[in-house]
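Moderator note: this is an archived Q&A kept for reference. The question asked for a predicted structure of one protein chain; the sequence and the answer are reproduced below.
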Amino acid sequence: MRARHIHRSISRSPATVKLETALENTGKRVGELLANPSFQRWLDGACSPTEKLHWENWLHSDSKNSELVENARELRDQTAFTAPDMPAPDLFVSIQDLEARIAEAEKRDSDPQVIPPASNAKASSNQFRYIAVAAALLLATTFIFYSWVSNSAGEEYHTAFGERQTVDLPDGSIAILNGNSSLLVDAGFGKKGGRNVTMTGEIYFDVRKSDAGADPHFRVHTKDGVIQVLGTRFNVLRTKEKTRVVLEEGRVKVHVLQDEIATNNPSSSIVLQPGQAITFRHHQILPDVEIGSYSHMLSWWKEFIVFDETPVSAIVKRLEWTYGVTVRVDDPSIFEQTISGRIPNNDLPSIVNTLARVLQVNASIDGNSIVLVK
């Protein structure tokens, strides 16, 4: 018997449309990740501590991100994808090849076909799956190229001991890095995901209010939690064990990380007012807000450091952290004294000599060692 050829009109069911939308969104997000050199360094285990912290926070912020990472890893392995500095012609060849395969598959669907027997249903399903995967790959690869062209990778800044650096952020905000600090500005800073930065060390932020219609939130991520602000000035100090936030102006909301996720749970978040501070650790029960004088934490980047009954012990810790030195005294009572006033904020020798005169002690500097003797 002669087989009857039937022309099938191609119609898309709601489920198909939904699948296509999901593929498009997934392909775009995977492509955006693979276009980011920082993400690729993280996949390879070759990223900096700040980058590692940034991507770990991102990974745990949404349960769907684990699947995105696996998809990105699989796509990269299958395509031998490297960094966004790959030669552009290779990308175009891959895109053209995929387009040809998809066009060929679509042509077979649009040509007159013999109604397949039920036994071929599985093969047809597998063919559709191939087309779907290829389409997602094409979307991701295309997005990777255009993201590469637009230089979408985030920026990272570092300071050595005793060094300071002022960073002008894309939204007009300012970040001032103290010595031994780092700042990673998210690749999508200022876009749909908001204004996100990740840091270690100590940074003073002067945050500009967002433009109308944009995400108003500015978020600073540390290993211990997230500081969320609108327009304000504040200081963040992240040491090896804890994060300390001092608010100078405006308001900030601090979220302490619980189970790797910074949530809006009232028991793990708190709003600070000007003149308040808080010190917190990862997984720690939210501590009480501190009220006191924090002038030295808000003036370390200025021409003069201002002290207001500041314990010498706190000043010494700041010197050790900022300049990578060790301070020793012959009399522990020196640490118990307090200082009020201001001293020139020049280089380390100038600060130490001025401090010695105020305390009426002798000071000596030998390499990375400072000794204060009564």
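Archived answer notes: The two ends are 112 Å apart (CA to CA).
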